[in-house]
Design a protein that fits this description.
By secondary structure, this protein is of the alpha+beta class. The protein has two domains: about 60 residues, Ribosomal Protein L9, domain 1 (3-Layer(aba) Sandwich), CATH 3.40.5; about 80 residues, Ribosomal protein L9, C-terminal domain (Ribosomal Protein L9, domain 2, Roll), CATH 3.10.430. About 35% of the residues lie in helices and about 30% in strands. It has a four-stranded mixed beta sheet, with helices on one face. The protein has a three-stranded antiparallel beta sheet with strand order 2-1-3, sandwiched between helices. Strands 5-7 form a two-stranded antiparallel ribbon. It is elongated, with a radius of gyration of 24 Å. The relative contact order is 0.14.
Length: about 150
Amino acid sequence: MKVIFIKSIAGKGKAGEIKDIKSGYAYNFLIPQGYALPATPGAIKQAELKIRTNNIRKEIDLEKLAELAEQIEGQTLHFKARSGAGERLFGSITAAAIAEELSKSIDTEIDKRKIQLDKALREVGEHQVTIHLSKDLEPKITVTIEQEQA
């Protein structure tokens, strides 16, 4: 029996694929669980249209991310923080603070989960920080932490 996968199933098929599956498996599992539909001519046309629109949408999203990466690349963010001996901060500069400041500077909301920090920044000086927008787009910014004058 031919089915069109609606959702991807590891080892069986990806969303949008048309495959021959045993009818028992299709009728007893795939179709009732919403993973697939019977491959009728109308359903095949709908699946192809949906795949095309998804591909176009993904291309547009990648173009927007590329523009955003160009805006972000090379930005320098300045923070002032209190520090003690050895230029170690009393607090820290976190991914949330960096995301907030970066969002202000480029007028686009950046999620704090996109900021890649191994650990919070706790020392005065310049630090390179990577922003993970997608698998291929990872612009870098410079975070400068200056000692706050008391």
